[in-house]
Write a structure and sequence with these properties.
- By secondary structure, this protein is mainly beta.
- The protein folds into two domains: about 10-180, Jelly Rolls; about 190-510, Extracellular Endonuclease, Chain A.
- Helix content is about 10%, strand content about 30%.
- It has helices at about 130, 235-240, 280, 310-315, 325-345, 475-485, 505-510, and strands at about 10-15, 25-30, 50-55, 60-65, 70-75, 90-100, 105-110, 145-150, 160-165, 170-180, 210, 215-220, 225-235, 295-300, 320-325, 350-360, 375, 390-395, 405, 410-420, 430-435, 445-455, 460-465, 475.
- β6 and β7 form a beta hairpin.
- The two termini are about 40 Å apart.
Length: about 525
């Protein structure tokens, strides 16, 4: 029970008079009238308290051991921030990690109580992402997550963390934790945000962790693409009117330079490196095997981040994209994304999702599916040259022609979901998708003997696409892990459920498919 006259366990709070701020500062989120949605989810009827921090007050968590990886995250509601990015700031919230060892410097991060600009340049590339990282957008009307990168010198140290309001308005804090919400069930391949510049074989050059409020990712500096991206999808994230807040993609300033090549939007201008035209690709020209055209394929979809422009702009960073076949991207991939999103928005499902690419084009067909019927030419079979002929592309803006962007042979997705009836901590939806990264393999039938005119006026074969939920694309998480781990060393192998410690529960989640409701 809340006792107004008692301190909050684990925390010390002080105001300008050096008097403890007691449990009376804990506010039920349902009573905060400035929140557009006080509590979202299955337990929304239960008391859920946030801390009100007034001007000049601070709160310090008692000593704890800083984890060996993971950002410090917190949710912030600052209703007094004006809805204009050019308005004067209302002050700051200062976050300080202070180690017990006085020889180790403390670390502070300032959150400015001012609206984010959410700017783009003249051609629609995000231009203020880094400047806006510690400014407020959704936090004006809801609880906005902020992720603070922890310096390596503090890892494993005994420390306190202090939140100090230097503001003319009150703010509300909630959910102070380490490590991303999207990694609730595990960090799939133990990615870390650690680089040893003295070690040329540094593991994390190919498995570099970047944690953002909107999604988390493991980045590969050799392929210049993410290994995986993980995010949470529920109605709180998917509802809103942000739209597409950018037209093009920006390099990710959180990718350390010069350790990594920062991919730019124009690096994906690959058409000069493809031996056929987009029109020939559009009509499945067989003699040129015109079955792949590269889109800048979102992994965390723009439409999954609609609650604010700041959240949406974060999806327009090149660490969130992969060379994806255009017809797969706009067709079957977009349809399965919408299927998940509709369940979240309209039926209150919650999903923890991972997506990435596997293998590389240019080899032979090792996995299906393939069309069940092809009329006219001789069908492509297992063991034949891949319909996706491209191993990698040269980055378009790299004047030295050194940077290569790897083209995956297939895209995959892991879905861990909670139906609204599920009150447990264990997902009741668990399965994986594996979808070849070309336009040929996603067809059910192809008939070159009966040409047809498409909506864009092109003449090509008659075809039938596989449904987005076709059983040929669906597998258990265990089966997906086996494919991904086939050529990986033990210390880099995927385990999407590494935080599940009950062997029976983990085996059920990995081995059994529990699919989406119809």
């Amino acid at each position: 029970a809340q006792l107004d006259s008692q301190p909050i366990p684990g925390w010390s709070l002080y105001n300008g008079d050096n008097k403890s701020v007691l449990q009376r500062s804990l506010v039920n989120r349902n009573s905060i009238t400035t929140l557009s949605s006080p509590v979202v989810g299955a337990n929304s009827g239960q008391p859920n308290y946030a801390l009100e921090l007034k001007s000049g007050e601070s709160i310090t968590h008692n000593f704890f051991a800083v984890p060996d990886w993971g950002s410090l995250r917190l949710d912030l509601h600052a209703p007094g921030v004006p809805n204009r990015s050019n308005a004067n700031p209302k002050g700051t919230l200062d976050v300080t990690i202070r180690p017990l060892d006085p020889s180790i410097p403390e670390f502070s991060q300032t959150i400015t109580l001012q609206k984010a600009q959410n700017g783009t340049d003249a051609v629609g590339v995000p231009s203020t992402y880094l400047e806006d990282k510690y400014k407020v957008d959704y936090g004006r009307t809801g609880f906005e997550s902020f992720y603070i990168d922890v310096p390596e010198r503090l890892r494993g140290q005994v420390a306190t963390v202090e939140f100090k309001g230097k503001a003319s308005i009150p703010v509300y804090l909630d959910n102070v934790f380490f490590q991303s919400d999207s990694l609730k069930f595990g960090n799939p391949n133990r990615a870390r945000s650690y680089l040893d510049n003295t070690d040329p074989n540094n593991t994390y050059q190919t498995n570099y962790l970047i944690e953002k409020p909107q999604y988390t990712l493991s980045y590969n500096g050799q392929t210049n693409t993410p290994n995986w991206v993980g995010w949470v999808l529920d109605k709180g994230w998917a509802n809103g009117s942000a739209g597409r807040a950018a037209e093009k993609f920006a390099e990710d300033p959180e990718l350390p330079a010069p350790n990594f090549y920062r991919v730019q939007d124009n690096d994906y201008d690959f058409k000069s490196q493809i031996s056929y035209t987009k029109d020939e690709y559009g009509r499945f020209l067989w003699n040129k095997k015109a079955f792949f055209w590269a889109d800048r394929g979102h992994l965390t979809p723009s439409a999954d981040r609609q609650r604010s422009k700041k959240d949406n702009i974060a999806t327009f960073l090149t660490t969130n994209i992969i060379p994806q076949d255009s017809k797969q991207n706009s067709g079957i991939w977009a349809t399965q994304e919408k299927g998940l999103r509709d369940l979240a928005k309209n039926r209150d499902f919650k999903f923890f999702i991972f997506a990435g690419g596997s293998g590389e084009g240019g080899g032979t067909v090792t996995d299906g599916p393939l069309p069940t019927e092809v009329k006219g030419p001789t069908p492509i079979k297992i063991g034949d040259s891949s319909p996706n002929q491209f191993t990698n592309f040269t980055a378009g803006t790299d004047s030295n022609n050194q940077a290569k962007i790897k083209v995956p042979d297939a895209l995959w997705k892991v879905v861990l979901g909670f139906s609204p009836e599920n009150k447990s901590e264990v997902p009741d939806i668990h399965f994986a998708w594996w979808i070849p990264n070309n336009s040929y393999s996603i067809k059910q039938t192809l008939d070159y003997t009966k040409p047809t005119q498409y909506l864009d006026g092109l003449i090509g074969p008659t075809f039938e696409n596989r449904a987005w939920n076709d059983g040929a694309f669906t597998m258990s998480i265990k089966a997906l892990e086996a494919r991904l781990n086939k050529d990986l060393p033990l210390d880099s192998q995927y385990d999407f459920l590494s935080n599940i410690h009950d062997p029976a529960v983990k085996d059920n989640l990995r081995s059994v498919q529990r699919l989406l409701p119809q």
